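Objective 1b: paired records.
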Amino acid sequence: MTKFKLFLPVALLAGFAAAPALAAGPGELPHAGVDLDDQASLQRGAKLYMNYCSGCHSLKYLRYSRMAEDLGLTEDQVQANLNFIGAKPGEQVNVAMAVEDGERFFGKMPPDLSVISRVRGSNWIAAYLKSFYLDETRPVGWNNTVFPNASMPNVLWEMQGLQHAEYGAADAGGERPVEKLVLAQAGTQTPEQFDQTVRDITAFLEYAGEPAALKRQKVGVWVVLFLAFFTFLAWLLKKEYWRDVH
């Protein structure tokens, strides 16, 4: 019983570390492959997001100065290349589009994406960005297999290319489900390059959802090592206390 109590903290830590790997199962969305330790990916993701997404979607819980600090950029670099609305470094990433314009263009103001990765998950974001297809029945001309009837157009279509849907047999309600998407017209990027583009944007959104995670992961390694070392010292102390006990 004593040994069990002694090594329980390490066992729990190992279990928590393995949880993400054990959580994956059949039928789930493909893994996004995000690596928050890849600073270059985060920088590319910030560039892509600010150029293709920030016109409609804000990140109201993220400040330009924090982005610069966490992504290894200077405030001057962020202000010159990633700030398109003239905000000050200490201000949040907002959009220039007025609320009434958003409602007129899309039916409602596009949502803030500060915590989208925590609500939907990185796998969902990556799958969503890759699942747009042309749909002439929709007002925006696009549809999405992950989020059907979304009001958002495919802002990445030039890089991805144009996808068409292949439909299956009609169900009882007369609806024909989408069986697969086919790339009908190539984009400026190969499928592999576009996968990396999506991975970069997803990584940036995962970072934006919890900027402190970057530092916490680095500190976490040292915490685990400390607990392991402390457990070893406790084992030596227990061994010394029970040396003369028979």
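Objective 1b, second protein:
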Amino acid sequence: MLAKTPPMGFNTWNTFGSEINEALIRESADAIVDQGLPQAGYEYLVIDDCWSEYLRDPVTQRLVAHHEKFPNGMKAVGDYVHSKGLKFGMYSCCGVRTCGDYPASFDHEFLDAQTFAEFGVDYLKYDNCYHPLSVDGPTLYRRMGMALRATGREILFSACNWGSEDVWSWIRSTGAHMYRSTGDIFDNAQSYRNIAISQMEKLGTSAPGCFNDLDMLTVGMYGKGLVGTSGCGDADYRSQFALWCMFSSPLMLGCDVRKMTPFIHSLVTNPRLIAIDQDEEARPPIFFHHRYEQDLDRIVCLKFLADGRYALGFFNFAEEERELFMLFADGGLTASSGLGLRLQDAFTGEDAGFYREYYRVKVPAHDCAVYLGTLEKA
């Protein structure tokens, strides 16, 4: 079964956009391996839009690699990625043209899927631009889901329809393994917060085999690259990464993996946060925002984990420090149980103490606190 847990890897789009080539992919593959990212779970290297020629081959009607960007062709690129022990991902679109105005897969689904399989592709991101309005989303994504299976190759199907047509209600039936649930992310605090808040009530259909994809991470971009707008500070990057983990979203790095700072490397390889994201049951969190009268400058949530532990998240989006709290009874743990929670700081691994009935924590502006909780007798 593909995607038993949320897929992890790197995608070129956030930083590089159309400025991609074979040398960049080789360097990125080298950097991913050299920095030990596969050991943390990152296994896919995905080339996004703008990799092909502007027209299909006039004889075979196949997609063709851009002769200047990828002079040795995409199979050679895929072979290099595989030689590093990574899995190879590529991009197409359910329309007539891709979002970058290159040839896309509408009415060519089975030919393109076979072409990708011959390239050695292990992952396909499938976008949503320029498709005929006479065909609905379920039909378009079902076609590619069928086409990928027909190749006989195991290819992870990443559906990117931006949350259109209530995608969470039907996308699992198309064979997709992950699905974009919102518009594109940008490298600023408001963008990642809006995305997270918009999905709080829509995580119930995200589960093993098909995960709600909150988009590629902007963690570590610091305002550089295609979607690098105002950028974020480290506190916001901590919050973004922790939210994606609490929400069981795929973790697709979007920064330049060749230039990660020590802080960013430590954050995106944090074993406790990744364990929350990769929890085999992928249960949605319980949200306690009702206690704050719909004040979405903060999120407080509790997540049941498969090993019997719990993940507790406190996120402060405000411009000042705030004290956030959680009443354990709201999550099901009553005082009469005789139990409390032993908390471990998910960022540092340090013991944060034993608590009954409630927990209260001061969280700096734009930052978060995340804990792993274990039930203990009082």
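The first helix runs from residue 13 to 16. The longest strand covers residues 368-377.
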